[in-house]
Amino acid sequence: KATAKGHRERRPDAPKAADASGEATAPRGRREQHRQPRPESESARNGQDKGAHLDDDSRDNPITPLVELDAAKVQEAVFSVIRDLASAVTDGFDCRVSLDLEHNKVLAECRDPEGGLLGREGQTLAAVQYLAVRMASRKLGANLRLQINIDGLRERQDEETREMALSLAEKVKAGGKPQSTRPLSSYHRRLIHMTLQDDREVQTYSKGEGSMRRVIVSLNKKNTPA
């Protein structure tokens, strides 16, 4: 059935399912095990990557437009994959899968009364999402963007991330020294960039490789009074 704002929703009559924070995208084909570090772009060094992609993989592997896929097959594939992964770590969960056509991503809103899917600091949730998007994409022969949310966890994490961004910006303005976040997912790095994109006194850019990639907040000298 269709939902508001371009969403299509389906709740299959199947066992219940699970959840993960942020978003994940599926790579296209097998990648080399070892890669040379990718140099920071000029725009990133200048703090201009605030509109960075939600997921790093999406730059190399374009996401398949959902309007080109069978909505029912996408929802069934994502639901069944999450169900199978989640059943290994928790019981009694429930999940509703919908398609956000406006933002071209699959949403999975889940409930997990036992809390087994979250894990320490959401690590189990992140692992389930990482696997789910790749397994579902392989089933469908398409590159999906998937966001799994458990019991409002994503909203809480987003708010904490925004607060961290604003706090770091204030420290930069007060002391003049660059400040760094802890290692973040590509989703939360982008959220830092977006939160501070209208603050002309600071600039942001990503630094590091792989799971250690983080955001640096520093003074924007072009717009800082002498």
Beta percentage is 15-25%
State the helix count: 6
- Tell me the distance between the termini: 58 Å
Major sheet attributes: 6 strands, mixed
Parts with pLDDT < 50 across at least 5 consecutive residues: 1-21, 29-59
Mean pLDDT: 75
Could you say which structural class the secondary elements and strand pairing correspond to?
Answer: alpha+beta
Quick one: how many beta strands?
Answer: 9
| Amount of helix | 25-40%
Shape: elongated
Widest β-sheet, arrangement of strands:
1-2-4-5-6-3
Order of helices and strands: EEEHHHEEHEHEHEE
Gyration radius, to the nearest Å?
19 Å
Topology:
Elements: E1 2-3, E2 7-10, E3 24-25, H1 42-45, H2 57-60, H3 71-86, E4 94-100, E5 105-111, H4 123-140, E6 145-150, H5 153-175, E7 179-180, H6 186-196, E8 202-207, E9 214-219
Parallel strand pairs: 5-6
Antiparallel strand pairs: 1-2, 2-4, 3-6, 4-5, 7-9, 8-9
Helix pairs in contact: 3-4, 5-6
Characterise this structure.
The chain has 226 residues and is of the alpha+beta class. It is 34% helix and 19% strand. It has 6 helices and 9 strands. It has helices at 42-45, 57-60, 71-86, 123-140, 153-175, 186-196, and strands spanning 2-3, 7-10, 24-25, 94-100, 105-111, 145-150, 179-180, 202-207, 214-219. The strands form 2 sheets. The protein has a 6-stranded mixed beta sheet, with helices on one face. Helix 3 (71-86) packs across helix 4 (123-140). The model is unreliable at 1-21 and 29-59 (pLDDT under 50).
Brief summary:
Helix content is 34%, strand content 19%. With 226 residues, the protein is of the alpha+beta class.
